[in-house]
């Protein structure tokens, strides 16, 4: 934890849970510790909003080549 109270969620966990910048995450205190809670409805809404947003003009390989250049 940083001095500002920020915690780092490991990449493997973020990928598995679909957490990205701007995701709404909360911690809930329980009798035996704490639980990380993610607003899945919001995540699903964001994904649905982006669905079909790409033009499809570039292939995945072409996009990766551009990002690696």
Describe the structure in your own words:
It is a single chain. The protein is α+β, with helices and mostly antiparallel strands. It has a two-stranded antiparallel sheet with strand order 1-2.
Largest pleated sheet: 2 strands, antiparallel
Order of helices and strands: HEEHH
Net shape = elongated
Q: Helix count, per DSSP?
A: 3
- Give the percentage of residues in beta strands: 15-25%
- Alpha-carbon distance between the termini? 34 Å
What's the total count of β strands? Answer: 2
Structural category: alpha+beta
Could you report the average pLDDT, rounded to the nearest whole number? Answer: 84
Determine Rg (CA atoms, Å). 17 Å
Q: What's the number of structural domains?
A: 1
In what order do the strands lie side by side in the largest sheet?
1-2
Task: Give the helix proportion (percent range).
Answer: 25-40%
Low-confidence parts, pLDDT < 50 over ≥5 residues?
A: none
Write the layout of secondary structure elements.
Layout: H1 11-17, E1 25-30, E2 33-38, H2 40-50, H3 60-68
Antiparallel strand pairs: 1-2
Task: Give short descriptive properties of this protein.
single chain, 69 residues, alpha+beta, 39% helix, elongated
Short description:
The protein is 39% helix and 17% strand.
């Amino acid at each position: 934890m940083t001095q500002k109270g920020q915690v780092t969620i490991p990449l493997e966990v973020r990928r598995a849970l679909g957490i990205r910048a701007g995701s709404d995450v909360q911690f809930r205190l329980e009798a035996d510790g704490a639980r990380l809670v993610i607003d899945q409805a919001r995540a699903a809404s964001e994904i649905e909003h982006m669905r079909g947003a790409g033009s499809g003009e570039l292939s995945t390989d072409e996009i990766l080549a551009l990002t690696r250049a």
